Q: What sequence folds into this?
DNA sequence: AATCTAATTAGGGAATTGCCTAATTAGATT
DNA sequence: AATCTAATTAGGCAATTCCCTAATTAGATT
């Protein structure tokens, strides 16, 4: 999944720092290495991760590579996270209300107490013999 | 950093699936394990990661643990990502325009061509003898 | 109080990650 | 065309991740 790639890319302190540096300004690799006190090879590898996630576009200037952030990818990501929030809770609506494990205050379910419908809906596949709960 | 923790938590396919399941409905651990075809131990560990990132709140119902998503954490995260986008590019403004590596189309800098100011600003610490570039 | 069970933790193995140094590559400059 | 150098890739190592099975724990039920 592409979203996961973008998330993995920014879910690292070093890469997040690189990103914020590059949002402000173009840096060559050595500049970034100096700023973060890491080797150029390490920076280069981090940039690769960001690049492959689509977050960076590279441009060559003379001897130097300069990377820029593609802000639209960040915007899209923020949108996808915000979209998660809009997912609505689907209440458990079994045929018999008593079957719903969620409406019971004391217990969830026990083997056999839960209709197939509820079991499937609330507790995933009904495949295993033990009875999902 | 807390943001990184939240990002790491959701930067995993399995945990993202858990999150979307839990956004729709309360599940007990076995229900989640059934749904994702993983062991309960594995699910429990993933839930721990999500919980420690503040994304989940657990509630005990009878024998069963039910987790709910704290949507505000997701909202905050989306906001922080969106905030990155608003970071403005700071153009390189050295005393002498010629010193600015970024405005030059052909070359970035060479040893000695770059004023200390520019070097510091554009390319990080000026410490190393080689000259940052 | 004793029993029972969902959830968690412990321990372990294969795969991945993040850093390094050294070698190589791409391509700009002369 | 030959040279030069920033950036990348290769190789290696320690730490972490993600999954498993087995043991333990928390706490609800009887």
A:
């Amino acid at each position: 999944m592409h979203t996961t790639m973008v998330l993995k890319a920014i879910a690292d302190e070093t890469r997040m720092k690189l990103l914020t540096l590059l949002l402000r300004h173009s840096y060559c690799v050595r500049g970034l290495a100096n700023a973060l006190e890491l080797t150029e090879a390490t920076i280069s590898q981090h940039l690769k991760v960001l690049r492959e996630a689509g977050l960076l576009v590279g441009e060559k200037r003379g001897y130097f590579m300069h990377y820029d952030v593609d802000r639209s990818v960040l915007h899209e990501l923020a949108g996808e996270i915000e979209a998660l929030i809009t997912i609505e809770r689907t209440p458990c609506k079994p045929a018999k209300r008593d079957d719903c494990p969620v409406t019971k205050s004391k217990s969830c379910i026990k083997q056999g107490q839960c209709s197939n419908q509820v079991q499937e809906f609330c507790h995933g596949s009904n495949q295993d013999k033990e009875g999902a709960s």
Remarks:
- The two ends of chain B are 30 Å apart (CA to CA).
